[in-house]
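Box 3.1 — From sequence to structure: Molybdate transport system regulatory protein
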Amino acid sequence: MQHGPLKLKAQLYCGEEIAMGPGKADLLDAIDREGSISAAARAMGMSYRRGWMLVDSMNRCWTEKLVETAAGRSGAQLTPCGKAVLTHYRALQRAMAELTGHADYAALAHLLRDHPAIKE
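Predicted structure (token representation):
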């Protein structure tokens, strides 16, 4: 993860809802790793309800569900569409991180103070 004055955050919108952003991508990673929405939410320090609401939002925003839950059983997994969306989103994040090598970024960073000036 890059530290410094440039912080880019990719958010893809579906109408007024955020269909994918850094937090939702992290939740998908956690679901893939943990095998359930509740365990993923717990691992991320959020409530099950919040995790479920984020999954519901993602599932409604894409042409196919990103997360599939087993009816009558605990557990969840990413669908092939969910894996594809996550893969492409992470690639977009990596491409955005490479912008720190761009000439315009270097010019802006050169003109940027380390800290705001004291008010006069």
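Summary of the box: The mean pLDDT is 91.
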